[in-house]
Amino acid sequence: MDAAFTDEQEEIRRTLRELLAKRSGPDEVRAAVATAAGHDPELWTQLAERLGLPGLALPEEYGGVGCGPAELALACEETGRALAPSPLLATAVLAAPLIAALGTEPQRAELLPEIAAGTLTAALAVPGGSLAVALGLTGEGAEAHWSGDGRAGGVQARPVRDGWTLYGEAGQVLDGHSADLLLVAAHTGGFARSRTLLFLVRADADGLTRTRRTSLDDTRPQATVELRDVPAELLGTDPADVAGALTAAGRTAAAVVAAEAVGAAAHCLDRTVEHVRAREQFGRPVGSFQAVKHRLADLYVQLQAARSAACYAAWDAGRPGPGEPGAAQLALAQCLETARAVTGETIQLHGGIGFTWEHEAHLYFKRASADELLFGPVHRLRAAAAQATGLLAPHGTGKGAAA
Fold first, then answer.
1. Of 262, 289, 326, 402, which has the fewest Cβ atoms less than 10 A away?
2. Which cofactors is this protein said to need (predicted)?
3. Is-above-0.85 flag for pTM?
């Protein structure tokens, strides 16, 4: 593994940081999340047209840039630093790899160029609010009961003359209220022969209701998706290795979310250092007090360790094959933990202003807390990594192991 960034990677970082500095400051972020879409469509268009961000990790034959998870994670470190709300995670990190891995050639040829161009956004809908388990991050995605297991609840798929219809509900769907296309995990075959497949649902499909929900982190909009006999198209062919594709997508998602957490923590630490240098108490800068220096030094060491873990996870996600067992979970756990620690100290070291709604500190603290709820918690990520490496034997199968 070569830890040095290439000239191309550095250019991605520089260009994206300059663009976000102009278009995604704290005021712009608050304005964007208050809109119906939950993000700034003009900024999304610029990210697509100037940087090709939605197609950064897609093959060139489908209109993508042809890079890999490392470049995507590097770009998302910058979006995390600015806390920029966008459909990037839902579309490019979760949905696009599944379409590329499972879709038929006509499906890939139709959908991936639109995603790469930024004209089509997509979202992954899994029932039960169990995204981390479905992606194989905090449980055995192939065996766990995350999608209803054919029983009551979840989303059920029924074959009809012209395809399939879906009935059920999925909650906590990232950007589910605004996505042009939904990838819905649904059960087929009834309880005795139940298995999970992925289906394509267009935003204008009959019987589809999408409701944006209030969430802890407004910069990651979430929605409840209700399907009442909604016409759908099977993604790929039957049978398909959905669990394997979800686990592979989970490796990339873990690296990207880890990189975002590092970017957010780095921004908070930079702002805190600036504040304690300027803020005076007892006639001297707050940053000159030894206790404050020690706290900042500890955060800096923790942040650099987290950045190294995120870089390794991104490199590992780009390798062919299943990758190193537990690498994605361990990196994500370390970065989420670091983001939570740094954002918490940011509020503390900013004093009274850090607790106000007008300051941006609470936005970053909410992002750190919400990410752990969505993709963690940290102790389950580490437990899953220990099981994957054989350090910890699972205590059973099914619901017991997943819980």
1. 289
2. FAD
3. yes
